[in-house]
Specification:
This protein is an alpha/beta fold. It has three domains: 194 residues, Rossmann fold (3-Layer(aba) Sandwich); 223 residues, Orthogonal Bundle (N-(1-d-carboxylethyl)-l-norvaline Dehydrogenase, domain 2); 243 residues, 2-enoyl-CoA Hydratase, Chain A, domain 1 (Alpha-Beta Complex). 46% of the residues lie in helices and 14% in strands. The protein has an eight-stranded mixed beta sheet with strand order 3-2-1-4-5-6-7-8, sandwiched between helices. Helix 27 runs antiparallel to helix 28 and helix 28 crosses helix 32. The structure holds nicotinamide-adenine-dinucleotide. The site of nicotinamide-adenine-dinucleotide has 21 residues, from helix 1 and helix 5. This is 3-hydroxyacyl-CoA dehydrogenase/enoyl-CoA hydratase family protein.
């Protein structure tokens, strides 16, 4: 019987070990972080009189790694304070403590001998029931554990995290020959549910799934480039966003990974495969070997395929490597019909098709690379993974491709592309030809919202865990109750409906507001409660300020007033719905997006939620109830009629005044945007399910609607305190005159206007203050400039 995982030990505190320890700390699992004892004290330690006997010296590596976690960007920790959950130690003094943990993860250097020796030491303290895993990128799990006892091997497997562990969704689990299958299933569930990862089960083959296909893809791209004479920037123009892949494309990726590391990873396959053609594909091209020999390793050595230099006037410029001369030169931005068409096309499917059908040399490059990667992937089904779905997921989650290889193949037309491949003399795997001969035209099929994929010559249903609700699939099953261009109400079943935003960037405009009102009516009459969630890239980037700016520029003040009133009234209706409402935001949730969550009974946010009232950035203050809700919370939390509200309202003033955005869901709690009763989930795919369960729990417990409440405010005295703070910031040059003007209005609203301290005011009174301040700011030319800048440049302007 294996124990639940409550404590862990991570051995190796390098890039990955410290990142994994941070992620365990993120989800509340305390962990021991061990590394080797340094050979001698550093000069600094000696100067302090510390010897090699001192714990500060002996634990130096792990302790330094923990300290570094707090400074790393992007942050590996959801909240800096979580670093306290990691205890540093060393392998000589603290290894016996691994007997006390439930999961031991080996994350030391990628060297079979080192890993084998470490596993032997681990086994001597290991207790049955504790799972042991290795984070190797490609060493065989069976080889690594070959000398260990049978009981140990049953509890041992690979857990391959991708870098950085907090942010990369993919986790490959690699069972060994003897690993207990029940334990594999338990670890899969744990890594999905608790760590929030996307898990694929890989076979114990060199570099597992994502790095096997990914490395192959990078190598064929390099070979095509060298053979056909494309430039670095031409290849990147094709292999990045033009085909639904990250901006880092091929060469930025290689520069980031480090060319030496990449060669090491490729060599691992080269040394382990027998097939001649495959071996040849993994033989790294001469140019790469040459660059490694010159020490041009990419970003870490200052130059690789790209080099950043200071150009004229101190402006930095990125040069690219000319492979013919091995010299760096200014980049030449490639342009062509196919690249242009791909840019305009929407989504990876259409983009890839546009690239391929353009009929120019970029179309040829796309086809030549894709063809090889698709054929290679098809040839590896059964060898590196059991299914095409696992391969597709690994590439999407591990390399951030929008489409996996088999999805790409379907997108470009399976039958047509196989004909072309055969005409060009390629060998197409037999199973693919048989599949087509059976009359099939794609690897995947969607039937009434249910997805199937080809598995051993038959369509098999994609395993849909109940925790993962797909709105797209519900829509395909005709579960839309109501909808317009900006939002829809979808029946989640069991009496719960989901209000989904789907406007461009999920910005809130009139259509979304109309749908919120209609949904409130619909849920009031026909449902138990409502979830507010969507599965767009971001939950909501705020209210759509385009119309607002136009009306303000035309000085149509009644129209502006109408827009704000509509927003306020709609949020008010949502709050007053007599049924439970749970909002489930993810990623960017800004301005009006936050205000759309505030009326809910509970917020269940993704850990990756960047949440903030950022209106100040466009020269405004929150006027959709954001200020009012915050003032209400302060009044509720400081409930004793004599207690001092000022320190709490000051904090709100600072948060909104500085347009603070959380770096995680947990950070949103720290900033006070989320309430202590709100929840944060590591797995974003589970948000809608958990929100639905929360609605059902509230409904079952006998839901009590949120009642109208008076708000105790700090009044004129408190307003003066806040304004004084802002004036101080202006005088010391931190903020501009216009910032000060906005801050004064914000202070006026949060204080409840010019009333005596402790006055009780209504919610509507606070909304009126918000609206007046907002309207007056709309008339300010500098506010209009800020709005204009945001709309055209997508960034805040400081003026
Ligand atoms: P790293 O070099 O940053 O860290 C390796 C750690 O191992 C260091 O802290 C070092 O002190 C320790 N170490 C060295 N020799 C040791 C020994 N004899 N006994 C015990 N500890 C020893 O490396 P990393 O990038 O964190 O990689 C660690 C593991 O994770 C490797 O197996 C690597 O292949 C794998 N991995 C790395 C990445 C990545 O992107 N860096 C991604 C996935 C997996």
């Amino acid at each position: 019987m294996n124990k639940p995982i409550r404590k862990a030990a991570v051995i190796g505190s390098g890039i990955m070990g410290s990142g994994i320890a941070a992620h365990l700390a993120n989800v509340g699992i305390p962990c021991l972080l061990l590394d080797v004892v340094p050979k001698e004290p550093s000069a600094e330690e000696s100067a302090k009189g510390l010897t090699l006997e001192h714990p500060a010296v002996r634990n130096r590596l792990a302790a330094a790694a923990i300290a570094k976690l707090k400074k790393t960007n992007p942050a590996p920790l959801y909240d800096e304070a979580f670093a306290d959950r990691i205890t540093p130690g060393n392998l000589e003094d603290h290894l016996p403590q691994i007997a006390e943990v439930d999961w031991i993860i080996e994350v030391v250097v990628e060297n079979l001998q080192v890993k084998k020796e470490l596993l032997a030491k681990i086994e001597s303290f290991w207790k049955p029931g504790t799972v042991v895993t290795s984070n190797t990128s490609g060493i065989s799990i069976n080889e690594m554990s070959a000398d260990r006892g049978e009981a140990f091997r049953k509890s041992f497997m690979g857990t391959h995290f991708f870098n950085p562990p907090r942010y990369m969704k993919l986790l490959e689990i690699i069972p060994g020959r003897d690993t207990d299958p029940t334990l594999v299933n338990r670890m899969k569930a744990f890594c999905e549910n608790v760590l929030g990862k996307g898990v694929v089960i890989a076979k114990d083959t060199p570099n597992f799934i994502a790095n096997r296909i990914g490395t192959y893809g990078l190598l064929v791209t390099l070979q095509e480039m060298v053979e056909k004479g494309y430039s670095v920037e031409e290849v990147d123009a094709v292999t990045g966003p033009a085909m639904g892949r990250p901006k880092s494309a091929t060469f930025r990726t290689l520069d980031l990974v480090g060319l030496d590391t990449f060669v090491h990873v490729a060599d691992n396959v080269y040394g382990s495969v027998a097939d001649g053609a495959e071996k040849a594909a993994f033989d790294t091209p001469a140019v790469l070997k040459d660059m490694v020999a010159r020490g041009w390793l990419g970003e870490k050595s200052g130059q690789g395929f790209y080099r950043k230099v200071k150009g004229e006037g101190g402006k930095s410029e990125i040069l690219s490597l000319d492979l013919a001369s091995m010299e760096y030169r200014p980049q030449k931005k490639p342009s062509s019909g196919s690249l242009e068409a791909a840019k305009l096309a929407k989504g990876a499917r259409e983009k890839t098709k546009a690239l391929l059908t353009g009929g120019d040399r970029f179309s040829d490059l796309t086809w030549d690379i894709l063809k090889k990667v698709l054929l290679y992937s098809a040839g590896k089904v059964g060898e590196i993974a059991d299914s095409i779905e696992e391969i597709d997921n690994a590439m999407k989650w591990g390399f951030n491709w929008e489409l996996g290889p088999f999805e790409t193949w379907d997108a470009i037309g399976l039958v047509r592309s196989v004909e072309r491949m055969e005409k060009e003399g390629e060998t197409v795997p037999l199973w693919v030809k048989d599949w087509i001969t059976q009359g099939n035209t794609s690897f995947y099929r969607v039937d009434n919202g249910i997805r199937f994929y080809v598995d051993e010559g038959k369509y098999k249903q994609v395993d849909q865990r109940p925790e993962v609700i797909s709105l797209r699939s519900l829509k395909e099953q005709n579960r839309v109750v109501k909808g317009n261009g900006g939002a829809s109400l979808i029946d989640l079943g069991d009496g719960v409906a989901c209000l989904e935003f789907h406007s461009p960037n999920n910005a809130i405009g009139a259509d979304i507001l109309t749908m919120i009102s209609q949904s409130v009516e619909e849920v009031r009459n026909n449902f138990e409660g409502m979830v507010v969630a969507n599965q767009g890239r971001n939950f909501c980037v705020g209210a759509n300020i385009m119309l607002l700016l136009m009306e303000a520029q035309d000085e149509e003040w009644d129209e502006v007033d109408g827009i704000i009133r509509l927003f306020q009234n709609t949020m008010y209706k949502l709050k007053r719905l007599e049924k439970p409402v749970v909002a489930a935001p993810h990623r960017m949730t800004l301005g009006g997006g936050v205000e759309a969550c505030m009326p809910a009974d509970q917020v269940i946010a993704s850990a990756e939620t960047y949440y903030g009232l950022v209106e100040v950035g466009v020269g405004l203050i929150p006027a959709g109830g954001g200020c009012k809700e915050f003032a209400l919370r302060v009044s509720q939390n400081v409930s004793h009629p004599e207690a001092d509200l000022q320190p709490f309202i000051n904090q709100v003033f600072e948060t909104i005044g500085m347009a603070k955005v959380s770096t995680s869901g947990h950070d949103a709690k720290r900033l006070g945007y989320l309430k202590p009763t709100d929840r944060v989930l590591a797995n974003q795919d589970h948000l809608i399910y958990e929100a639905k369960q929360a609605v059902l729990r509230m409904a079952k417990a006998g839901y009590e609607p949120i009642r109208e409440e008076k708000i105790r405010v700090v009044g004129s005295e408190g307003k003066a305190v806040m304004q004084l703070g802002a004036i101080g910031m202006r005088e010391s040059g931190y903020i501009s005159d216009h910032d000060l003007k906005i801050a004064k209005k914000l202070a006026h609203v949060l204080a409840g206007g010019d009333v005596p301290a402790g006055t009780l005011v209504t919610e509507q009174y606070m909304l009126d203050l918000e609206r007046e301040a907002f309207l007056s700011l709309c008339g300010e030319p500098k506010t209009q400039q800020r709005m204009q800048h945001m709309l055209t440049k997508g960034k805040a302007l400081r003026n």
